Amino acid sequence: TLGGARALGMADRVGSLEAGKDADLIAVAGEGVRAGDPVGSLLARVQGEDVLLSLIAGEIRYNRTEVAACA
Predict the structure, then answer these.
(1) What CA–CA distance (Å, rounded) separates 57 from 64?
(2) Which candidate, 12, 15, 38, 41, has a CA 20 to 30 Å from the CA of 26?
(3) What is the spatial distance between Cα 7 and Cα 17, in angstroms, rounded to a whole number?
(4) How much is the pTM?
(5) Distance (Å, rounded) from C-alpha 1 to C-alpha 31?
(6) How do 51-56 and 59-63 pair as beta strands?
(7) In this predicted model, what pLDDT tens digit does every residue of 52-69 receive, in sequence order?
């Protein structure tokens, strides 16, 4: 993603996980993600209920990690 951010002239704001940069990301339960094809398996197998944590612009918007840790 850093290459794309550089091409768009936005590498100072996005493209890598660094302090002070904008970040949107999710954490999902790993059972549906295959190491050989993480992106393909994420798109094909992971569903909404597999999302454990969601951050938008670096702020937690959804957090189910405490529930998952106790299950």
Answers:
(1) 18
(2) 12
(3) 17
(4) 0.63
(5) 25
(6) antiparallel
(7) 999 888 789 999 986 545
